[in-house]
Amino acid sequence: MTLNESWTVMNSSSTELDSRRPNTHRRCCSFLFWSVITLSIVSVVATATVIILYLNKFPLPFFSKRGGVSAPSVISTNRDSGAVVSVSRGTEGEPISIFLDPSCPDLSESFLRWESLQSSLLRLLSNHNAADDWQDTGLVQKMGEELKTLTGHAHNLRLEADSLKTGQGVLEQQLDVLQAEQSRTLQALQQLHSGLSDALLSQQREPESQRRTNPDQQGGSRGTGPSPSDCTDLLSSGVSQDGVYSVFPTHDPNGFMVYCDMTTDGGGWTVIQRREDGSVNFFRDWAAYRDGFGKTTGEHWLEDVLPLRSGGGYELRIDMADFDNATAFALYEDFSVGRDCVNPEEEGYPLSLGGYSGSAGDSLLKHAGMRFTTRDRDQDQSENNCASYYQGAWWYRNCHTSNLNGQYLSGGHASYADGVEWSSWTGWQYSLRFTEMKIRPKKP
After folding, report:
1. What is the three-state SS of the chain?
2. In a designed cystine with 220, which of 13, 108, 224, 227 is the match (CB 3.0 to 4.6 A)?
C-alpha cells in the first residue's frame, strides 16, 4: 500500500469516529430527560394520593365533601340514645353517635387517677417554679434586709460620730472652764503673793522710809511750810535724791507714800506706774487699780493715782527700755483722767492728753477720751473685753496701740499684743523690759 492510500484510510477512520460521537451524546441526554420526567410524574401522583387520603381521613373544617364550605360540627352528649358523644355536621348530615361497649371495662376511675396525677404534677411543677421564684425573691429580700442592716449600722455610726463631736465640744468647754478657773486661781495666788511681798517689803523698808520722810513731814507739821502735795513740792523744798517720800494731797491730809524721781528732766516726778521684772501681776480687777497695788520701790500701780491726777493739769512722761538696753521716752504736755467729771469713778476715769514729744513714738493718742477698762469692768468699744483678751488694764478703745499693764514677757513673743507693748517703738509682739509712768504739775 502506498503512502497516499494509508493517509486516505486514516482520514476515513477519523471521520467515522467523529460521526459516531454525537449520536452517543444525544442518547445520554435523552435518557436523563425522560428519567427526570418520569420521576416528576411519580412524585406528583404520590403527593396527590397522600393529600386525597389525608383529606378523606382528616377533612378540613371549612371544606365539605362536595367542595363547599361546611357548617361547623356540633358535639354534644346524647344520654337519651345511650351514646356517650354525638357529633353532627349542621342540618344536612346525620349525627354520629359514640357508644361504649357494655363489656368494656370502666376506666373512669383510672381517668380520675390520671387527672389527679396530672393535677399533682402540675402543682409540683408550679410549686417548683414558685420555689425557684421564691428563692430569687428570698435572696432579694435577704439582700434588702442586709442593706437595711448596713444602713442602720451606718446611721448608728453617724450618730456615734455626732455624739463624739458633741462630747468633744462639751469637753472643750469644760477644759476652757477649767483653764479659766486655773487662771483665776493663779491670779489669786499671785495677788496673795504680791500682797505678802508688799507687806514684807513695807516692814523691811519702813525704817528707811521714815528716815527719808521724817524731815519733810516734821517740817510740814511744825508749820515751817505747807505739807508737800507731790514730788514737785519736795523738789522745791530742797529734796534732790530719788526715793520714797510722803505726800499730802489736799484730798488726803493723812498722806501716802510715793516714789519721787528727782533727776530725770529736771526732777519732781511722781511715779504712778513701774514695770521692771515681772514680780507683780498687773492683770487685776477694778478695785485693785482704784486702790493701788505692788511695791513702791519696785513694780506697782500707785494708790490714789486717780484722785491725784484730778487736782489740775499734769505732764506725763513714760520712760521705757527693751531687753537690749535700748531706751526711749514719750512726753505729753497735758495729762489727766476724769477731768471735769462730777463722779470720775462712775464715769470711768476718761483719759485726756495732748502735746506729744519724745523718741518712742505716740502710741497713746488713740486712747484719748477712752474710759479705763479692767477684766471685770468692760468700758471699751470692742465687742470683746480688751482687758481680758490682752491680759491687762488700760484705756482701751478697739483695742490698743499701747498696753503697758499687759503680761510681763521676755521680749519677742508669739502671742499677739498681750505683753508690755508700745507698738510705735517695738511693735505688737515685743514685750518691754522696763516702763515707768510719772507725772508732775505743768509748768506755768
Report:
1. CCHHHHHHHHHHHHHHHHHHHHHHHHHHHHHHHHHHHHHHHHHHHHHHHHHHHHHHHCCCCCCCCCCCCCCCCEEEEECCCCEEEEEECCCCCCCEEECCCCCCCCCHHHHHHHHHHHHHHHHHHHHHHHHHHHHHHHHHHHHHHHHHHHHHHHHHHHHHHHHHHHHHHHHHHHHHHHHHHHHHHHHHHHHHHHHHHHHHHHHHHHHHHHHHHHHHHHHHHCCCCCCCCCHHHHHHCCCCCCEEEEECCCCCCCCEEEEEECCHHHCCEEEEEEECCCCCCCCCCHHHHHHCEECCCCCEECCCHHHHHCCCCEEEEEEEECCCCCEEEEEEEEEEECCCCCCCCCCCCCEEEEEEEECCCCCCHHHCCCCCEECCECCCCCCCCHHHHCCCCECCCCCCCEECCCECCCEECCCCCCECEEHHHHECCEECCEEEEEEEECCC
2. 227
Which position has the higher pLDDT, 444 or 44? 44
- For 114-128, 219-233, 351-365, 422-436, which range has the lowest pLDDT when averaged over its residues? 219-233
Q: Which DSSP symbol is given to 354?
A: E
pTM above 0.70, yes or no: no
The single residue listed with the C-alpha cell 505726800 is 247
Using DSSP, state whether 311 is helix, strand or coil.
coil
Most confident of 28-32, 109-113, 143-147, 337-341: 337-341
Sequence-distant (6+) residues with CB within 8 A of 251 are: 307, 311
Nearest 10 degrees: Cα torsion 197, 200, 206, 208: -70
Read off the pLDDT of residues 197-230 as tens digits, 9 standing for 90 and up: 656 655 554 544 444 444 444 333 334 557 898 9
Domain boundaries, the chain: 54-99, 214-441
Sole residue written with cell 485726756 = 352
Asked if residue 64 has pLDDT above 50, the reply is no
pLDDT at 150 over 50: yes
pLDDT in tens, 358-404: 999 999 999 999 999 999 999 999 999 999 999 999 999 999 999 99
